[in-house]
Amino acid sequence: MKELLEEVKLADEVGLDVFAFGEHHRPDFVISAPEVILGAAAAITKNIKLSSSVTVLSSADPVRTFQNFATVDLLSDGRAEIMAGRGSFIESFPLFGYDLNDYDELFTEKLDLLVKINQSEKVSWKGKLRAPIDNKGVYPRPLQEKLPIWLAVGGTPASAIRAGKMNLPMTVALLGGRADQFVPFVNLYRETAKNAGHDVDKLQLAISSQFYVADNEQRAVEEFYPSYEILMNRVGRERGWSPLSRPQFEYMRNDGPLMVGNEQQVIDKILYQHELFNNTRFLAQLVTGYISHKNVLRAIELYGTKVAPAVRKELGISPKII
Question: Which of 90, 108, 101, 119 is nearest to 163 (CA)?
Fold first, then answer.
């Protein structure tokens, strides 16, 4: 936990725009309550936006989620964001007493309630899977007029349609395949928003890929691969995937969305993804389990001082995409 706080503090100091913490309920991840560490991060940073990389809203209570993030917003002087999703892992459902058969309906209902709370101080709401609310106030309110609520998605068309209809910013996690395979998915998001009467030019889109940068390509590969191999094979055993091979890793790094290499290699790949998607944000997803803390800090330093400035200069933008 202390290492994570050092990482977000450094990210703020080197000028990165956003830092996000995930939510997991497994022995191989340390954060189950991202709002708590976000509150700690708020006290030691000045400018960087603070988000969950996913809040598993299906198994959380929207009222409590809003209250927690509103608290982070107050602590951070208006820098909090929520990234809501259904989650890639399902441990939280039995842990909190939810039925996996209600997987999608739980998310739909709770997202609707969270958005309503964000829009209005007092809420009246009724659903099937949660007790109704009759004109009750939800406090505290955030410093921002409204909390930014992003949808974190993995590529299911229904998720793009939902985000487009609701006019919510969307984060797409590119974890496999080729990046260009996701272009129709992103187009569906924008087309749905347009058909719903929303201003497509104001839509925000984030692309997230697993990431590691080092001073040279060989060092990046050799430092990153052990963590990546163990993570992918651990998850793969649970899901029936074939074990990850080194050639598969190299394919993902060269032709897939995996961003592992020297400064110029990751700059080029971020710019390539921007050309495909015209995204307004890129989120670098660190896989750090077997990488030394010193090397993780070096990767963040390179990202903030070398990679991000080069991307911003090439695109002619202010620091709001990285």
Answer: 108
Query: Where do the structural domains in the chain lie, given as residue ranges?
Result: 1-150, 154-322
**What CATH number belongs to 154-322?**
3.20.20.30
**Cα gap 321→18, rounded to integer Å:** 9
- Give per-residue pLDDT as tens, 58-81: 999 999 999 999 999 999 999 999
Query: How far from chain centre, in Å, is Cα 160?
Result: 15
1-150 against 154-322: fold identical? yes
Residue 55, beta-bridge partner list: 84
pTM: 0.93
Residue whose token pair is 């919510």: 168
Helix (H/G/I), strand (E/B), else coil: 55: strand
- DSSP run (H or E) holding 93: helix 92-95
CB-based burial label for 279 (10 Å; 0-12, 13-18, 19+): buried
As its CATH architecture, domain 1-150 has: Alpha-Beta Barrel (3.20)
